[in-house]
Amino acid sequence: MEIVRTPAGLTAAVEAMRRAGARVAFVPTMGALHAGHLALVAEGLARADAVVASIFVNPRQFGPGEDLARYPRDEAGDAAKLEAAGCTLLYAPDVAAMYPPGFSSFVRVDGLPDVLCGAVRPGHFDGVATVVTKLLAAARADVAIFGEKDWQQLAIVKRMAADLDLGTEIVGAPIVRDSDGLALSSRNLYLAPEDRARALALPRALAEAQGRLRAGGGVAEVLAQGALALATAGFARVDYFELVDGETLATLDAVQPGARLMAAGVVGTTRLIDNLGL
Ligand code: AMP
Asked: For the whole model, what pTM was predicted?
């Protein structure tokens, strides 16, 4: 598997693949790869002839006091996993290649970044929108695959790619979970064993809320029960437990097609997110 480290190198490599007739899928990541990331590669292979992945821990999407410095990094291990999964090319730029001196642009989507995780992490989704725009603009792939695990991010990227005519189709791939139900996340590596056990309350509370809503339970009551279940299980903080429209992220007070349960909270020192369709 070839590794390129500059935007121009990425553009040239993908252009060569497409000139040779290949349809190209792109899978952006921050590394510390697990089966959830590799499922995105598999989805890419199902939709294209070749998959290009990127690994870049984007400083602009971390707030002050967040985990940028301790974010897990293992490029050699990640590269081996990507190659085994059938990836053709890895884009692994350093910070200076992405944000050279003088860099002064950013991309901001209106509205969607202000709610849910964006309300708790101000500026986070501006950093995401900026880096994803740069990655998609340099890759110029046919399709890019993002995980439904980060549902709000997926909604923002879809909006942005359509608004800015980025020319890459944005596709969501289902959440990959551990056998006990916890959504795979690079940040699960931070969890001490007792916190890993507490964290299970997140998928359980979502599944219970889904069951109650399907059985006709009142939305406000079901959401309050969900948030309480997390607090009772020992979450240090519950950021939100909400029912939203999956596309606009507007809060809903009744179940409707496309509705999504969204939850986030902190266990120990680790912030976890999860979501479930209805
Ligand atoms: P990250 O490396 O955490 O920035 O994630 C890179 C991509 O992998 C994003 O599109 C995530 O939504 C996706 N992803 C992360 N965890 C999972 C998971 N458990 N299932 C599916 N996709 C995931």
From this structure: 0.98
